[in-house]
């Protein structure tokens, strides 16, 4: 109940406007009552992250590797954007609590199952995180929020003076988020498979050269 109310207050007030006092008001209790369950706001936020991550579905190995990787990345985006106002916190939060570590272990294992080896699996996992963090932040706290500048221009001036920006704007809105994300995701998966195949080819070549030398 406290966690549900916390998400509601965060969505209404934003991260910067959230406080335990406001949460207590939403629950109709004293703040000290909340501290009995969560000793600090940090403990509460950790519980919120754990709750979201517990809902992330890691596909099992009955599926082809590429499909597993695709679903894993789609799942993190889905989970992180369920509560848009909380998304900027979860995407930069270092997930080292036991529930989060269990999910991270499964996801890193998924990359290892792709045949990349320990180092490349770790680097690709991080690179995937960079892509996901950028997409999630833009979809929840960036472009989705509208113009940031105080000084803006009219649609007419935009079309006249910045025609490329004006034309591209039709594809930048929230209705285009999914298509843009999926485009980037497929590019990312293509490149991962290209890297893996190139590494396998090089390994096979080195092995063949060694056989020839022995002969």
UniProtKB/TrEMBL annotation:
Keyword list, A-Z: DNA-binding, Repressor, Transcription, Transcription regulation
Keyword Oxidoreductase attached: no
One Pfam family per UniProt: TetR_N
Domain of life: Bacteria
Signal peptide: none
InterPro entries noted in UniProt: Homeodomain-like_sf (IPR009057), HTH-type_TetR-like_transc_reg (IPR050109), HTH_TetR (IPR001647), Repressor_TetR_C (IPR004111), Tet_transcr_reg_TetR (IPR003012), Tet_transcr_reg_TetR-rel_C_sf (IPR036271)
Gene3D superfamilies cross-referenced by the UniProt entry: Homeodomain-like, Tetracycline Repressor, domain 2
DNA-binding region positions on the chain: 19-38
Limits of the HTH tetR-type domain: 1-56
Functional summary from the UniProt entry: TetR is the repressor of the tetracycline resistance element; its N-terminal region forms a helix-turn-helix structure and binds DNA. Binding of tetracycline to TetR reduces the repressor affinity for the tetracycline resistance gene (tetA) promoter operator sites.
Name used for this protein in its record: TetR/AcrR family transcriptional regulator
